[in-house]
Amino acid sequence: MVNPKLLHIVNSLNPGGAERLAVQMSQAFAGEFDVSVVCLDEPGLWAAGLRRQGIPVYCLYRQSGLDISVALKLAQYCLRHRVDIIHAHQCTPWIYAALSRLVYGSPRLLLEEHGRFFPEVTNRKRVFFNKTVIRHLTHRFIAVSEDVRNRLVEYEGLPFDQIEVVYNGVVPDPLLDSTERDSLRQSFGIGADDFVVGTVGRFDPIKNLPMLLKGIAGAREKNVSIRGLLVGNGPAFEQVGKLRDYLGLSEVVAMPGHRDDAHQLIQCMDLFVLSSFSEGTSMALLEAIAAGVPVAVTGVGGNPEVVMGGQTGWVVGSDSVADLKKAILEAVSHPQKARQFAESGRLRFDERFTREKMLQGYRRIYAEMLNGAVN
Fold first, then answer.
1. What pLDDT band is residue 118 in, cutting at 50, 70 and 90?
2. Are 35 and 26 in contact (CB under 8 A)?
3. How far apart (Å, rounded) are the C-alpha atoms in residues 47 and 70?
4. Is 336 exposed, middle or buried, given 0-12, 13-18 or 19+ CB atoms closer than 10 A?
5. pLDDT, mean of residues 172-177
6. Are 339 and 333 in contact (CB under 8 A)?
7. What is the DSSP letter of 2?
8. Is 135 exposed, middle or buried (0-12, 13-18, 19+ CB in 10 A)?
9. Beta-strand relationship, 57-59 and 271-274
10. Of all helices (H) and strands (E), which one includes residue 227?
11. E strands in 16-166
12. Fewest C-beta in 10 Å: which of 37, 160, 216, 299?
């Protein structure tokens, strides 16, 4: 029996939440589908790993502006490989995939929107084009949070009742033993009595890492045992590093850049912080919760759908350094409360945010698409 052909389309496979999910879903469904990946811009850091696992990765090297040749190349690819389902990750890949169906209309198309820009501005021409053309070339619309769902309605002109929410999910990592954890912490100059506030993710302005640094600096005025660990890389890395130095934190906040073991480094933290201006459903946040690390997040995007303020973690105001400082100091001063939040968060994770639950959702949706069902 020939497996159906599933194509994931992404901007690239450079490290990021949406890209990571595309990689993991490609791997997870490789036994049930003939899976391949197309990158619009460049292959990216993670392309080689997929290729080594036998999952083809192609690149279209999109030019600036609306590059119509990309839609034509995509249509040719789908025709040549007889693609059954196109899974487009985020809106730009979705637009090109939809346009490709004007040339070769056989594949069924799914949009999965992971997150949104900040700030967002209504583009009436885009909304009109989506409503009159792109929407009718798409079979399923998926958002990773209720907030993203609402934004697809407002800023993309999509019908609310045709958008389904499927939360992201992760597999909990094995917990480090105390020796491994202490060794990792020591590699960053972190002592046994230090309280580590940290995060993992792409260094992008939307992540508002200056808020996190200022929160750490403010909290250290009250408790000098507080240190920082910011793991990741991206366009804002240099700017964040300069602010770290300006705040006098260069000796107490580690910024090791991109790390393949980032999921393990989360377990070195005593409080995981997501200070973003906007979020979908953060994979790193889910990993922290799954690992039993207390969390504090800004009350934006999908964060409050994952973290229940006062029950499973701290939810603070967007760009509120004062709120974050208070949360950090409370986590340091009330370890029992932090542990209770972490335990409650893990129970909620098991109910809603496991990878298997996520994969079951997409497995059902793929089957419905192959059988001709649409929203």
1. confident
2. yes
3. 19
4. exposed
5. 92
6. no
7. P
8. middle
9. unpaired
10. strand 226-231
11. 34-42, 57-59, 85-89, 108-113, 140-143, 163-165
12. 160
> What distance in Å separates the CA atoms of residue 268 and residue 265, rounded to the nearest whole number?
5
CB 221 within 8 A of CB 328: no
Give the pLDDT confidence score for residue 117 in this predicted structure.
84
The region, left, alpha or beta by phi > 0 then psi within -120 to 50, assigned to residue 232 is left
Which amino acid would we find at residue 345? G
Domains of the chain: 5-169+355-370 (3.40.50.2000), 178-352 (3.40.50.2000)
| Range 263-289 average pLDDT | 96
pLDDT at 238 over 80: yes
Query: Which amino acid, residue 173?
Result: D
pLDDT surpassing 80 at residue 1: no
Report residue 190's pLDDT band, with 50, 70 and 90 as the boundaries. Answer: very high
Q: How far apart are CA 20 and CA 335, in angstroms?
A: 32
H or E stretch covering 69: helix 68-81
Number of CB atoms found within 10 A of residue 246's CB = 11
* 119: preceding bond cis by omega (within 30 degrees): yes
Which pair of tokens denotes residue 228? 């920082």
**Which residues have CB under 8 Å from 160's CB, separation 6+?**
149, 150, 153
Query: Which residue type occupies 29?
Result: F
State which amino acid sits at residue 367: A
User: SS3 sequence, 84-122?
Assistant: CEEEEECHHHHHHHHHHCCCCCCCEEEEEECCCCCCCCC
Average pLDDT over residues 201-211: 96
CB neighbourhood size of 261 (10 A): 11
With CA atoms as reference, report the closest residue to 324 among 288, 298, 286: 298
Order of strands, edge to edge, in the sheet holding 226-231? 253-257, 226-231, 195-200, 271-274, 295-298, 314-316
